[in-house]
């Protein structure tokens, strides 16, 4: 089953050295999962300051800078994995370095079998 692991943290909680170490540890986890056939994709995101939000209301497009929701923790990255079950997804999420400073939200990916792989 495919799961999206959404990583939320405060952007100001990382020193540059911690951020670099986090990236190194995260890349090692990705390589391990890829070797096991469980990794699909992952990436950190640029700062929330670079975000653009789009909403369409009554047929009109509204564009604003930044995220729409005000929150202390921001979406900072993601992993897309293919594992046997939720327990395995939880075990992987607990290993991701940002789980120590923020939250890793796990969501099953809705299958759309009619779409090409």
UniProtKB/TrEMBL annotation:
Stored SUPFAM superfamilies: Dimeric alpha+beta barrel
Pfam families: YCII (PF03795)
Chain coiled-coil ranges: none
Top-level lineage group: Bacteria
InterPro entries per UniProt: Dimeric_a/b-barrel (IPR011008), YCII (IPR005545)
Leader sequence segment: none
YCII-related domain segment(s): 1-111
Family statement: Belongs to the YciI family.
Name the UniProt record assigns to this protein: YCII-related domain-containing protein
Organism, scientific name: Novipirellula rosea
């Amino acid at each position: 089953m495919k799961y999206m692991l959404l990583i939320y943290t405060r952007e100001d909680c990382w020193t540059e050295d911690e951020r670099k170490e986090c990236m190194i540890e995260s890349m090692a986890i990705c390589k391990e999962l890829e070797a096991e056939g469980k990794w699909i994709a992952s990436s950190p995101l640029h700062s929330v300051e670079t975000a653009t939000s789009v909403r369409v209301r009554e047929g009109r497009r509204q564009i604003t800078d930044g995220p729409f929701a005000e929150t202390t923790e921001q979406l900072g990255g993601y992993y897309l994995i293919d594992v046997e079950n939720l327990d395995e997804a939880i075990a992987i999420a607990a290993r991701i370095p940002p789980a120590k400073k923020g939250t890793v939200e796990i969501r099953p990916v809705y299958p759309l079998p009619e779409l090409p792989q």
